[in-house]
Each structure stands twice: as C-alpha cells, then as structure tokens.
Design a protein that fits this description.
Two copies of one chain form a homodimer. Chain A is an alpha/beta fold. Chain A is about 40% helix and about 25% strand. The longest helix of chain A is centred in the last third of the chain and has 18 residues, at about 250-270.
Chain lengths: ~300, ~300
C-alpha cells in the first residue's frame, strides 16, 4: 500500500569525528522516503528552494518515489549545520536556516488523501494537525517530534498525539514529554494521551515498543564504524513504516517485525554521511542484516 | 560447583530521588554473593571492621554462604556515601572511607584454592593478581574493575586482564580502557588483551557479550520503579557466575543464558535499597522474570 510522508527536505552541513560534508542531502522526508522505498511506494509532501539540486530529485525518482507533493518555492532550501562529538550523541546545532521551510504549508494532493499509511515527520505540530485534517481515515498514522515542540507548543503537540495511532520519540523526549524518569511510567503516561503504540528510539541501545499488547525490545546492531548519525531516527521510521505499508496488516507481529526492519535500515544509514549508504542499499543486504539482528538476542 | 568471590563488604549511605538510607549493607562481595546464592554455593573472601553488624553475617549464613574467608579486623568497615540524580545514572560519590579495606590482603583459605569458578570483584588490580596466584586452575575466572583502576593502575590491570577468562565492564569503562569510541572496536581491542569473553554492562540498556563466537545482546527489563541502582553490576555478576557454576559447563549457550540470568537478578536488585530485594528473592520470581525477559525480544 502507498505511504505518505510529510516532512523536510534539506541541505545539511555535518561534521563528525570522521569527516565534514557541506550542503549534502538531508531532511526528515529525504531519509524517511529513501528508507521506505526499499519496501513500498512512497509519496512525499515537502518544499524545496530554487537552489535544491535536480540530481537529488532524480535520486528520489530513481527509487520510484512520487514527488508530486514537493513544491519548489522562490528562496533557498532549508539548511541545517551540526557537529557531533566523539560519542556521536546529540549533535551541537551550529545553524538552522528555515528559508522556504518558514512558510511551509503542507497541501496534500487530492490523489494522496486516501493514502492508508501516513508519517508525520518532525515538523511544527500545527502543520501536522493541518495534514491530519486533509487525509481520509488512514489505516495507520504515525508521528515524530522533538524537544523543541514539546517545550514550545505542548498543547498543539498533545492535540496531534491524541489523533495519531503511533508516536515515535527518543528516550529523553519521552521522559520530558511525560515528566517522568522511569521510561515505563513515561510510556504509560504517553499511551494515555491517545496513541495505541509508542516507540522509544534509543540510538545504539536499540528501540522499545510499548502498547496494550506489552513491551517489545529490539537491539541495535553493534556497528564497527558509525560515521554520521544524522537521519538515523527518520531512517528507522522509514524502514518501520515501509515494512508495515508493504505488509498491509497492522498487528502485533507485524509491528514487532517492522521495529526490527527499522533498526536494520537505521544501522545502514549511519554508516556514511547523508543518505549515501541508504541510497545504495540492496534488498539482499537488508535481509542479511535482518537475520543477524534476530541472531543477536537468540539464546539457542 | 563452588564459586569464590573476592571483594568488598561495606556499609553504604545512599541517597536517590526515592529516599535516603544510612549505613546499610553494601559492597561488591555482598551483592554478588547474595545474587549467586540463588544458584549455587558461594564463599566470600573479604574484610569487615568491628562495627560490622552480626545480623548481616547472619543474613549471608542463612543463604548458605560460606564466610570462612571473611576476617574481622580492628577498625571500622569500609564505607561509601553516594547520591544519585533524577536519571539514576552514575552517582556522585560524597565520601569513600576505606578503613579496614585499606590494608586488605586477600588470603584464600586452603580449602577454597581449588574452587572452579572465581570472581574478582572490583578491587585494586594488585590484590586481584595476588588472588590469581593463590587459586589452582579454575574452570573460569571472571573479573570486574572501574575507571579509577583503568586510569591509575593500567599496567597492573592489563596483567590481570591477561590472566582472566572473562572481563565485565560498563560501556564507558570499555571505551576508556580501549581508547575507542566504537564499542565493537573497543571490544576487539579488549579481547586482544587476553580474555576469551567480554561482557559490557549498559544498565537500563541491557548487556552485550563479545567473544570469538560472536555478539550476544541481552535486554534489560523495563522496570516500573528503579529505587536504588547501587550494586546492579555486582548483582548481575552474581547471577551470571552463579548460574554458570551451577550449570558447570561453560559453552556459548550457557554463557548466553547466564547473561540473561544476570540481567534478571540485577533487575530485582535495583527495586529497593541495599540488598533488601535480593535477600528476599524467590526462585519462582526469578523463573517468571527470566521468561518475561525472553519474551521481550521475541518476534513470535
């Protein structure tokens, strides 16, 4: 089934202990859609500026990604500049230039309004609400957010959370949103806000999925080299939602498998700068690492 | 089979966001032996002062723990005072009073010298070396350490590591010892120093086991309430070594199962201050949580 993502397309300048890359393809919708395209058909709603290289659009098209919802506005593309330290934890943001993203008003093309799988990437919760009003009874709506919105637009964000099926957060976002130190208590608080499923992303420590069905724990793949963690969360979301949309049935077994596929795709995404590794991914590589993931925590 | 632990017995004063307890039973050998006693016979080599309450020794005896190697010296017992913040991560040490532990010289009683499973808890690597010289060809020697020894006695510590079968460290200790940010690279470096197995303890994020057989990932149990993390690592080690000593065979399957039992026991240990929860543990509770642990990361 088709999968719609609404998010950002960006040009990033990223520095890690392993190198520095300037004006490379970034943004939540970019990472998400390339990851999801390994599993299913994806359409993007986003905005780019006049400076956005045609070759990036070509890359998306070469993966069968539908760009009818991507508008090119006058002005420059959204830019983010960040630097990661030795531990490759949270990056220091050196600059955020919203540019054309400042006035982003997501309009879902008519033919996308009945898409059954929808991902609201990390954007202003007011925009996420506008998207929710435009789509017709999707099978699954998932959403991501960040500390900035938790702190600055808590009411609007809670309104979004109330209307989505699944929320993805990282460890500290979950604790801050719930105001609880225990991740289990934080999860219960968040599930009480509305969503049926909460996925807590924990970077190199894996991911936890909470729902009424219980708790599922997926490991993260212990990598030899992490080169650039940018986009890991969006790649996880892309693998997760891509698998679900292809699988069509959303039950606990499918959700668990989707978490593992999300982790698999994220583990590739961080092996190089920008979307470089994901753009070159082969299905056979995904299958091989999926098996390795399952082996990691098997007793027998 | 019998299991020998050489470590500390202490009186701790601990503050967490959930309370404050003064002069409660602590120390690596205490946590370790109570955990291991759920699986096998344990003997302790440690030192206490004149002020060490007889009721604590009674507790150990009630669990069948052999105290012939525990000497009572003139002076006060080793004391540690610490405070945990809201995230229950690394505690702030408010005071360390070595007291009788200052001159601790571990002498292994003759009848313990052929113990087949030996755990060198976190003490001065020079003392760990002295223990190694006193034991006769154990089946498995495991050791723990801490940043203080990695930084202050690196050569002696490397000599210990060279002669043990298994090393347990936490995440940051592994990276510091190896001088590498990637945990996979750090593990390879450490295994090259001599031990056949490295276990990286990651608190609420679980544990990783590295060896020539590959990587094993055990989750940590997502608890409702963590009251006091003190002794979690030693409780893990106690559950791990206790299971192995009872199981007798040390192969990859046994090591994996032991990691899960270690995680199970640690998950109980942090549910109350001091050794209170571990001292009340029932075998049926362990079995139940062991099953829950396996369920956590099962796809089906």
């Amino acid at each position: 089934m088709k999968l719609l993502v609404v998010g950002s397309m960006a040009l990033d300048s990223v520095e890690t202990p392993f190198g520095k890359e300037e004006n490379v393809l970034g943004g939540s919708a970019s990472y998400f859609s390339l990851a999801a395209s390994m599993f299913t058909d994806v359409c993007i709603v986003a905005v780019v500026g006049q400076d956005f290289p045609e070759e990036h659009l070509e890359l998306f098209r070469s993966k069968g990604i539908d760009l009818k919802g991507v508008t090119r506005e006058s002005g420059e593309t959204f830019r983010w500049e960040g630097r990661y330290g030795y531990d490759l934890g949270d990056p220091e943001t050196l600059g955020t230039y919203l540019n054309v993203f400042q006035d982003f008003n997501p309009v879902i093309p008519d033919e996308y309004r009945d898409t059954e799988f929808v991902f609201l990437a990390n954007i202003d919760p007011e925009l996420q609400l506008r998207v929710l009003k435009q789509v017709k009874k999707p099978k699954l709506v998932a959403c991501d957010t960040m500390n900035y919105w938790i702190e600055n637009k808590p009411e609007q964000l809670k309104e979004v959370i109330k209307h989505v099926d699944l929320l993805m957060l990282n460890d500290s976002e979950s604790r801050i949103l719930a105001g609880k130190a225990s991740i289990t208590q934080a999860a219960r608080y968040i599930l009480d806000l509305g969503p049926k499923v909460l996925i807590v992303k924990r970077g190199e420590y894996g991911a936890l999925m909470f729902s009424k069905e219980g708790i599922f724990w997926a490991p993260s793949y212990p990598l030899e080299d992490v080169i650039d963690p940018t986009g890991a969360g969006d790649s996880f979301a892309g693998g997760f939602m891509g698998f679900l949309a292809a699988h069509e049935t959303v039950d606990q077994a499918a959700l668990k498998t989707a978490v593992v596929y999300g982790s698999v795709i994220a583990s590739f995404a961080v092996e190089n700068f920008s979307v470089r590794r994901t753009a070159q991914l082969k299905k056979s590589e995904i299958d091989k690492r999926f098996t390795a993931f399952l082996q990691l925590s098997r007793l027998d």
